[in-house]
Amino acid sequence: MEKKAIGHRIILAVLMALALVSCSVTKYVPDGEYLLDRADLRLAEPARYISLSEMSPYIRQHGNSRWFSTTKLPLMTYSLSGRDSTKWINRLLRSMGEPPELYDSMLTIQSVEALQAQMQNQGYLRSGVDVTVERKGKKLRTLYTLYPGMPYFLRSVSYDIQDTAVARLLDTMDPSRRVLHKGMVFNADNLDKERTQITQYLVDRGYYHFNKDFITYRADSIVGSNEIDLTLVLHPYLDNNGYRPHSVYTIGSINYLSGNPDNPKIPLRRKVLERNTFMEVGDVYSAKDLRSTYDRFGRLGIVRYTNINFHERQDDPVLDCNITLSTNKSSTISFQPEGTNTAGDFGAAATLTFQNRNIFRGSENLSIELRGAYEAIKGLEGYGNDNFVEYRIGSRLTFPRFIAPFLPKSFRRRINATSELAANYDLQDRPEFHRRVFSVAWRYKWYDQKHNDRYTVDLLDLNYIYMPWISDTFREEYLDNTTSRNSILRYNYENLFIMKLGFGYSFNNSRWAFKANMETAGNLLNWVARAMHFHTDEEGRYTFLNIAYAQYVRGTFDFTRYINFDYNNQLVFHVGLGLAYPYGNSTILPFEKRYFSGGANSVRGWSVRSLGPGKFLGSDGRIDFINQTGDMKLDLNLEYRAKLFWKFSGALFIDAGNIWTLRAYDEQPGGQFEFSEFWKQLAASYGLGIRLNFDFFIVRFDMGMKAVNPAYDDDYNHYPILHPKFSRDFAFHFAVGLPF
To answer: Which of 168, 188, 277, 707 is least enclosed, having the fewest CB within 10 Å?
Structure first.
C-alpha cells in the first residue's frame, strides 16, 4: 500500500506541475496583447477542389506548436524561464523553448487575402473568406470560414502562336505533355504548368532566349454561366529593332577551363571531359543537355563545382561554351578511433582510411581501409584466453560509369551509373574459434533521377569463410557432444563458399518508400558440379576446392507510408517482409543470410536477436544468437512522430512481427512457419521514443514494452500488456537514424 501511495503522490505532483505550467503560458504576454491560442479553418459548404490541409499553409499566423498535437510543451518550457536573462538556466530554457505567438491583426488580414487568392487560383473566382476572433483572458482564437461558391471550368482552349516556326514545332509536341484541356477546372497552377511545359519544350530544341514571359492568356467568361473560353498567346521576340521570330541557337565551340588558380591544368583526361559533356559542336542548344552536363560533372568525386557559360557570337545564333571545373584534392588520409560494446564486452577499435578520388585521371575513387579492434570478453570458462582481436583490410575501386562491353553510347549516357570492384579480408580471433573471411564483389549502381529510382546489381559476389581453429572446449560442448549437438551451429562453424548474384531496387519520396532486394547463390556452381561430377563430402554436398558451397534464394521487401498532418506531426506505417530458402546443396542458410527479430529497427519490445523463431524459447544464452534466427521475417510497425521543442522530437509506436523457419529443425522447436498458426505467433510491443535531430544525423532512443509474447502459452507471460513487469518486458534501444 505504501508503494501505491507514493506512486499516486508522484502522479499527482506531475499533474499539478503541468497544470501550473499550463496556467503560466501567458507569463510573457504583455498587457493589451493576446496569445494566439490556435487558428482554425473550415469550409462553409462542400468544395470538390479545395482541401483544408492544403489551404492551411496560407494562414499567415498559427498558434505555438503542440506536443503530439495536444500540449504546447515548447511554450511551457519557455515560460519556465525567469525574467533575469543573465542566468544561464533562463537562457537555456528560452533557447530550448518557444516564445509566445502574439496575435497580429495585420497577419490576419493577410491570411484572409491569401486564402481568397488561393481559392481563386483553384477556379473559385467568386469566393470569399470570413474570420471570427474569440478572446478569453489573454488568449485568442481565430476561425477562418471559406465560402468557395461555384468553380469555373474551361469551355474551350485555343492557341494563338505568333511565330510560324514555333507553331510548326509545337504541332509535333506530344499531346500528353499538354496540361490544359476542355472541361477542366480553371486553375492558375495548371495555366502556369502549361507555360512551363511549352517553355521547356522550346528551350530543349534550340530556343536559348525563350522564357515563360513570352506566353500570356486571354480568358473570356460566358455571361450567366461558370464557363471560360481560354486562349494561350505566344508572342514573338522583341528587341530594339522591334518584333522578330525567335532564333534557334547551335553550339559553336566547347572549351574546358580550370577553376583552380594554383593549377591551370584540369586533372582529368580529355576523353573523360567529353564523355561527361552532353553538348557537342554543331548540335542545337538544349537546356536538357546543359542540365545533364551539370549533373554528370557534379557526380565526379574529384570535381568540387562546375560553372558553364555561353557567349553569343555577334552576327550568328551560335553559342560558344566554356566549362570551368574546380577540383578537390585527389588524396586524403583519415583516422577514426571508436569505442565498442558487444553484449556488455567493452573494447576499442581504430580505422585508417586512404582515399584517392582520381586514381586513373577519370575520377575513379580508390579507398583502402585498415581496421583493428580489441574486446575483453567476460564470463567464458574453460578457454585459453579471454579477448577478441580483429584485423581487417578492405579496398574499393569505383568507376563513375558503366564498365561493361557491348553497351551503346546512348545507353551509357542515359543511365547515371557507377561500377564498383571491392575486396576485403577479415581476420577474427575469439577464445572459442578463429575465423577468416575473404570476399570479392563486382557490382553496378545507377540512379534514375526522373523517377527517383535506385538500382543495384551484384553481378558477382564471392565469399570464402574459413575456420582455421576451433577450441577443444567449444567443440566438445557444442559441436561434437551428442546430447547437445546443434546442426545449425555446426553448419555455421564449417568452412563455406558463397557465390551469389543479387539485384536491388529502391524508391523514396515524401509520401512513401519501397525497397526490394533479391539474391541467389550456388546455382551456377551446382550446374557445373553436376555436369562435371564434382567431389561430394560425407553429407552428400558438392564441394568446390574441397569446400561445400551454399545454395539458396533470398528476397527482402520493405514498404513505408508517410502521412503528414502538418509540419510537426507525422504518422508512419511500415511493412517489412523477408523470405529465404536453402535448397540443392544446402539445407541451412548461412548465418549472415538468416533473419532475426527484435532490436531498434524491428519489434522494439525485444532486444536484438531475442525474438523467435515462432514460439521458440531459448535456453542457452551463449548460443541462442544462432538459434534465434530464421528463414522468414515479418515486421509491422505504426509510429506517430511529433516535433517537441529545440532539437527534440518524440514518437509513439506499436510494433508486431516475428521470424520463422521454412524447414523443421530439432534445435528450434515451434519455429517452423505454418499458415494456420503464424498469426498466433505474432509478437507485439508498444513504447515511446526520443530523437535528437542534429540536421546531418539523428540520435534515437527508443523504449519498448512487450505486449504479446508468443514464446509462452500461459496468460501471465503470453500477455504482458495485461500483466506488465518492467524487469521482464522492457527493452531500451540506442541507434543512429530513423527505424524506417
So the answer is: 168
Answer yes or no: are the C-beta atoms of 655 and 619 closer than 8 Å: no
Q: Which amino acid is at 738?
A: L
Task: Tell me which H or E stretch contains 531.
Answer: helix 523-532
Across 316-321, average pLDDT:
96
Distance in angstroms (rounded) separating the CA atoms of residues 292 and 306: 12
Q: Tell me: the pLDDT tens digits for 67-107?
A: 766 778 788 888 888 888 888 888 888 888 889 999 999 99
- Listed in sequence order, the residues at least 6 apart from 601 whose beta carbon sits closer than 8 Å to its beta carbon are 735, 739, 740
> What are the tens digits of pLDDT across the range 132-177?
999 999 999 999 999 999 999 999 999 999 999 999 999 999 988 8
Three-class DSSP category at 37:
strand
Query: pTM of the predicted model, to two decimals?
Result: 0.79
Q: What is the pLDDT of residue 623?
A: 63
Residue 552: all three cell numbers together: 539458396
Nearest to 292 by CA among 272, 317, 275, 312: 275
Phi and psi, residue 415, nearest 5°: -100, 130
Contact 166, 199 (CB under 8 A): no
d(CA 657, CA 638): 12
In three-state secondary structure terms, 14 is: helix
- The DSSP 8-state label assigned to residue 88 in this structure reads H
Would you tell me the crossing angle of helices 164-171 and 188-203 to the nearest 10 degrees?
100
Spatial separation of the C-alpha atoms in residues 650 and 68, rounded to whole Å: 8
What is the residue-wise DSSP string for 443-469?
EEEEEETTTTEEEEEEEEEEEEEEEEE
Contact 578, 589 (CB under 8 A): no
**How many secondary structure helices (H) and strands (E) does the chain include?**
16, 29
* Radius of gyration of the chain from its Cα atoms, rounded to whole angstroms: 33
Name 300's Cβ contacts closer than 8 Å, sequence gap at least 6.
268, 276, 363, 400
Identify any residues that bridge with 496 across adjacent strands, giving them in sequence order: 465
Cα angle 555-556-557, degrees, rounded to a multiple of 5:
125
Q: Nine-digit cell at 392?
A: 581487417
Q: CA 295 to CA 290: how far, in whole Å?
A: 9
The whole-angstrom separation of Cα 122 and Cα 146 is 13
What phi and psi values does residue 155 have, to the nearest 5 degrees? -80, -35
- Give 544-561 pLDDT, tens digit per residue: 988 999 999 999 999 999
Separation between Cα atoms, residue 614 and residue 640, nearest integer Å: 28
Query: What span, in angstroms and rounded, lies between the C-alpha atoms of 126 and 542?
Result: 80
Virtual torsion, Cα 272, 278, 284, 290, nearest 10 deg: -120
403 near 415, Cβ under 8 Å?
no
Could you give the CA distance from residue 589 to residue 427 in angstroms, rounded to a whole number?
Answer: 22
Instruction: Report residue 336 as a C-alpha cell.
Output: 577514426
CA distance 557 to 576: 6
DSSP string across 146-181: EE--PPPEEEEEEEEE--HHHHHHHHTS-GGG----
As a dihedral over the C-alpha atoms of residue 78, residue 84, residue 88, residue 92, rounded to 10 degrees, the angle is 10
Q: What is the identity of the amino acid at 439?
A: S
